[in-house]
User: Which sequence fits this backbone?
């Protein structure tokens, strides 16, 4: 039997709200969703590490915003962002998000283009 432990973590309020909807629609709990996703991440990482494959680590670094797209493309030996995005989907990892400041700067730049 697997022993469970409680822990405290912080989530974005909007993410938690969306997770509750998914859990309700799936007739499950947020805890079950979280455990399934974390288990997948850990098992995939461990399997890649055991086989000496560093590709998953490179993809995880990209997903967490610790590596940019260009660095990740070089590390994986691929040339197109399309291939990178396909690998992210196959690895079941979320796409990285720009920092809020970068997003706001882009929005301001777009507004500056408007007449």
Assistant:
């Amino acid at each position: 039997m697997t022993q469970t432990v409680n822990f405290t973590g912080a989530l974005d309020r909007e993410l938690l709200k969306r997770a509750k909807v998914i859990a309700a629609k799936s007739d499950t709990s947020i805890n079950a969703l979280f455990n399934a996703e974390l288990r997948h991440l850990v098992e995939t990482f461990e399997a890649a590490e055991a086989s000496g494959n560093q590709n998953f680590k490179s993809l995880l670094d990209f997903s967490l915003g610790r590596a940019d797209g260009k660095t990740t493309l070089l590390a994986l030996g691929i040339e197109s962002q399309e291939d990178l995005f396909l690998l992210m989907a196959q690895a079941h990892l979320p796409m990285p998000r720009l920092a809020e400041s970068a997003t706001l700067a882009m929005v301001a730049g777009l507004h500056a283009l408007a007449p």
